[in-house]
Amino acid sequence: MEEKKKERALCPVSKKCGGCQLLDIPYKKQLDDKRKMLSGLLKDLCPVKGMLGMEDPYHYRNKVHAVFSRDRKGNPVSGVYQANSHIVVPVEKCLIEDEKADEIIGTIRGMLRSFKIKTYDEDTGYGLLRHVLVKRGFSTNEIMVVLVTASPIFPSKNNFVKALRQKHPEITTIIQNINGRGTSMVLGDRENVLYGKGYIEDVLCGRRFRVSSRSFYQVNPVQTEVLYKKAIKLAGLTGKETVIDAYCGIGTIGIIAAGSAGNVLGIELNKDAVRDAISNAKANGVKNIRFYCGDAGEFMEQMAADGEKADVVFLDPPRSGSTEKFINSVAKLGPARVVYISCGPETLARDLKWFKKAGYKAKEAWGVDMFPMVEHCECVVRLERGR
């Protein structure tokens, strides 16, 4: 009971924010409950072998997003949207966010008045600063700050950047992202690098990765290593296989797997991510991997039509899961094994039924707790053809 009271006291806005739904529950029970949830969803489809948790389940998020607004007195505030609304809940410290990122966001909030920078008002469309995004490489300690503005005109931006860097010399790059659209999208399409190289790098499983403002990168690097090592182990690579990394993003899984495979093909629709993936492969000296910008399903269908083969397919789709069309394209190519990394257990269960229909049986599943204190969890599944 004392532990529960202490956790509630540590986060005064937990009920309004709604981000940490499991904050009141001891971590061991969180893991047990998530394993039961997975087992229930995958019942009759696949045995769940375990739930891999964290030693320290706090301050794990290397990416922190703050919405900027103002209170009734006109003072700038920053925080998160209350669930299912655009009401901003002011947040100064968060139990799951990187502490340095929270500190930098607080500094920016405190600088706005002296620089006469107005926060953006969604109702009127007036104001400049909409969001601040901070990404930190946990292995490299490189820090990116993205200032999302409603207009490209940023008065005194050079002085603002200089002042911010004086307060936080650990910041390695600062970017202005321009988002003038009246949508809920955080980032716009245009960017100006105000300081540094315009990206950060981090190390996963001994490989170095370039992370830009808009490219996807897992928010929990500690558990990402756990997840990827488990995925590669389930793939059963011997050094000879042709591997496809579908939905490859910036190439993390494929580049890590390349050390245990014959050759790897990464396919991704996001052009920025493909550019980062190519740079990441070069930076790591990985020569047995190639990246293609396009639809992974169409790519595999063309491979099959050309008589080409693949031994293993990794897929890591968005939370909405894969599609029956994509799964049928995997079946046409006919790899012996498929390793499915899922960030949506509900859609995973649906997709495993489609895989079964296409001739692939799920052999084992492992839960990986990428998001302690949050109801969500990830899962990695090994499937084999025709067994």
Question: Any overview of this molecule?
Answer:
- With 387 residues, the chain is α/β, with parallel strands linked by helices.
- Helix content is 31%, strand content 26%.
- It has an eight-stranded mixed beta sheet, sandwiched between helices. It has a seven-stranded mixed beta sheet with strand order 4-3-2-5-6-7-8, covered by helices on one side. Strands 9-10 form a two-stranded antiparallel ribbon.
- It is globular, with a radius of gyration of 22 Å.
- The N terminus is likely disordered.
Which keywords apply here?
387 residues; alpha/beta; 8-stranded mixed beta sheet; 26% strand; globular; rRNA (uridine-C5-)-methyltransferase activity; U5_MeTrfase_fam; SAM-dependent_MTases_sf
